[in-house]
Amino acid sequence: MSGMAAFERGDVASAHDRWLHSAREGDANSQYCLGLMYDEGIGVDANASRAVSWYRRAADQGVAAAQNNLGLMYLEGRGVPRSEDEALAWFDKAADQGFAPALSNRAMLFLSEHQGTNPSVLSDLERAAGAGEPHAQHVLAVLRESGLGTERDVVASMELYRLAARQGSADAQFQMGRLSMNGAGGTPDESDARDWFTQAAQQGHVQSQFLVGWMNLQGRGGPKNEVYAARWYERAADQGFAPAQSALGRLHATGVGVEVSDEDALHWFRIAAKNGEPAAQYNLGLMLAQGRATRRDPDQARLWLTASAKQGLPIAQDRLANLLESGESWAIDLPKAYQWAVLAAEQGHSGAATRRDRLAESMTSAELQRANALLDAWRGEH
After folding, report:
1. For 1-97, CATH number?
2. What CA–CA distance (Å, rounded) separates 40 from 78?
3. Percentages helix, strand, coil for the chain, rounded to the nearest 5?
4. CB–CB of 128/101 below 8 Å?
5. CA dihedral in degrees (192, 197, 203, 207; nearest 10)?
6. Which residues are within 8 A (CB) of 364 and not within 5 positions of it... i.e. 6 or more apart?
7. What gap in Å lies between CA 47 and CA 235, rounded to an integer?
């Protein structure tokens, strides 16, 4: 029985032994298969150095897949010192044989180092995409949609996204969801978008997980399911996606899809706030100002509310204006309050507009002069 026959019937140990015997006798395909086993930890402990050793033996005998994978090992610095030059040399060898993944990887290496593209890169991507390589199809679709280095063609980009998505490319599935949501092919189709986002989410695509959560929460493109929404938000949050962390905090604060828990809400708001999410910074500031699930801390509350306001969140700007006007948590500072009220009102916050007008009438001329100086300084920096 051959190594492949043993592998296909699920006897990985026997496959390894048969491939090892053949590989030692110089069989290139067996050498490549052993490299793959050690690379991916299939039936053996993953060992990058051994993977490189077997890939190199097969690559030296001209196995294109081994040449491509050896290039990837050099590109990623696994089992060998990282070297883009060595990676390119091996990609070239495999690409010269027309191996589609190598054509794609060679193009990706160029694009990672340069702002634009060139005819050679486009040729590699087109050849790889034409051969059915999903990553090349996705990248070529991005270029066609944006018109970067090539003629803009939204219809062609959609077809390329679709081809890659159907082969399981999570990035392409996300793009198909985005295009369906926006109606790029005609009428927006939220049901289709939800299906594509779900396929990508199931593969761990973090933005898609967040969007599937949002669509379940809002009942967009399918039934409303708050429990599913919380589960998808949690998956994205666990991957460090700040908007999902913030959204999960809101669910815990309000008891939507999960049990009400100020402690859990505080936990997620704090993580998302530290990751720069303005809504979470605002909510964390509120909880610290109110002493919810933690001791009251006006100074930390002001820090987080200010961080959110500086990112342009109008509700945070208005809340800062309110606290600085009332002196509820900090010393009254009407010019500062006016500054934040003006900025919030400019974004359409109606309550801030009322506050702005009231402050303008109540401030002294010196206070108003300082307030306008603060606004000028802000606009100069932003």
Report:
1. 1.25.40.10
2. 12
3. 75, 0, 25
4. yes
5. 170
6. none
7. 30
Token digits of residue 43: 């039936």
Residue type at 97 in one-letter notation = Q
pLDDT tens-place string over residues 9-53: 888 999 999 999 999 999 999 999 999 999 999 999 999 999 999
Contact status, residue 116 vs residue 148, Cβ threshold 8 Å: yes
pLDDT band at 1; cut points 50, 70, 90:
low
Q: Which residues lie below 8 Å from residue 114, measured CB to CB, with a gap of 6+? A: none
Taking a C-beta distance cutoff of 8 angstroms, is the pair 16, 37 a contact? yes
| Backbone dihedral region for residue 151 (phi beyond 0: left; psi -120 to 50: alpha; all else: beta) | beta
- Which residue is associated with the tokens 């003629």? 151
Token readout for 252 is: 């815990």
Counting Cα atoms < 13 Å in the Cβ hemisphere of 180 gives 21
Average pLDDT over residues 191-218: 98
